[in-house]
Design brief:
Elements (H helix, E strand, L loop, with lengths): L4 E4 L5 H10 L4 E4 L3 H9 L3 E2 L3 H6 L3 E4 L4 H9 L13 E4 L5 H12 L4 E4 L2 E2 L1 H7 L2 E6 L2 H14 E8 L3 H29 L4 H8 L7 H12 L8 H17 L7 H13 L10 H11 L2
Parallel strand pairs: 1-2, 1-4, 2-3, 4-5, 5-6, 8-9
Antiparallel strand pairs: 7-8
Helix pairs in contact: 1-6, 8-11, 8-13, 11-12, 12-13
The chain binds nicotinamide-adenine-dinucleotide (NAD).
């Protein structure tokens, strides 16, 4: 019998992921803070629960896809939380992007109840979540990874075992540095090139054919050209992720030179009330910065 799955957090990412689990014919019970997404999943064949504990009581494997570390902590360890409902032998899979330190702490708390935990954050964005082509980076025991593999295969394409608990979150932190700094670099190139009179579409096309080629330009090219920033991945979430990066760097005594600058740009967007926009809106901060010097 395949594992029965519980899923908590049906947002931009979690909702299409839950749909893909239904398509793969898993028995699925869902919970979310807002009701509308639950109703949509129930219409597609899922069962609804009234709180995280109830989801866990009906599941062998419990997946969370929540915004941040405090949300995962509350859903797992809070009153009526998952840890109160999941049976020994159960498996928790946190696919949210959270702090590797918090992730390890939660895995330790779960193990004291005979419950295993994997951290399995993803990249590939909403488009990857819908298409079932996410990259999934996994931390935890290899036996738990093997158990979860069929589930991951329903959600993603590139699935990588990274090491013990927290290793998946660590790799995700690395990923978020590269994506943020790439958005900033593409933005600087576009501001420079267009100011000097070249069509931005030409710039992206030419850069896409050489060493400067990158997925940010491929996936967010239209956003940069049209100055439209429908999320996608929200500015506020990327700021949260760079906070995780900087905390992790600090814990290891590292002083990253450029990440704090780009994080400051995301913070500036949030101050302007633009935290819900896609992170490609970083172009606006770069444009303002470049203009302000003249
Ligand atoms: P989102 O804000 O769209 O969704 C979060 C969902 O969690 C919402 O539906 C919200 O109602 C629910 N929620 C929050 N607190 C809850 C609680 N206490 N109990 C029950 N439900 C609760 O966020 P998202 O874009 O889907 O991102 C989820 C996670 O995935 C984040 O950690 C994010 O960093 C990561 N991520 C996002 C993307 C992306 O492109 N959006 C890509 C990779 C990773």
């Amino acid at each position: 019998m395949p594992d029965k799955i519980g899923f908590i957090g049906l947002g931009i990412m979690g909702k299409p992921m839950a749909h893909n689990l239904l398509k793969a014919e898993y028995d699925l019970t869902v919970f979310n803070r807002s009701q509308q997404a639950i109703e949509e999943l129930v219409a597609a064949g899922a069962k609804a629960a009234e709180n995280p504990r109830q989801v866990a009581e009906k599941a062998d494997v419990l997946i969370t896809m929540l915004p941040d570390s405090p949300d995962v902590e509350a859903v797992l360890a809070g009153e009526n939380g998952v840890l109160a409902g999941l049976k020994p032998g159960g498996l928790l899979i946190d696919m949210s992007t959270i702090s590797p330190v918090v992730s390890r702490k939660l895995a330790e708390a779960a193990s004291q109840q005979g419950i295993s935990m994997l951290d399995a954050p993803v990249s590939g964005g909403d488009k990857g979540a819908i298409a079932g082509t996410l990259s999934i980076m996994v931390g935890g025991s290899e036996a738990d990874y093997e158990r979860a593999l069929p589930i991951f295969q329903a959600l993603g394409k590139t699935i990588t075992y990274c090491g013990p608990n927290g290793a998946g979150q660590t790799v995700k932190a690395c990923n978020q540095v590269v994506v943020a700094l790439t958005i900033e670099a593409v933005s600087e190139a576009l501001v420079l090139g267009t100011k000097a009179g070249v069509d931005p579409e030409i710039i992206l096309k030419v850069l896409g054919g050489g060493l400067a080629q990158n997925r940010v330009m491929e996936m967010r090219g239209p956003n940069f050209i049209q100055h439209k920033y429908e999320p996608g991945f929200k500015v506020k979430l990327h700021h949260k992720d760079l906070g995780i990066v900087l905390d992790t760097a600090k814990a290891f005594g590292l002083d990253l030179p450029v990440t704090p600058l780009v994080d400051g740009m995301l913070a500036a967007l949030i101050d302007q009330g633009k935290g819900e926009l896609d992170h490609s809106a970083l172009l606006e901060v770069v444009e303002e910065h470049c203009q302000s010097k003249h």
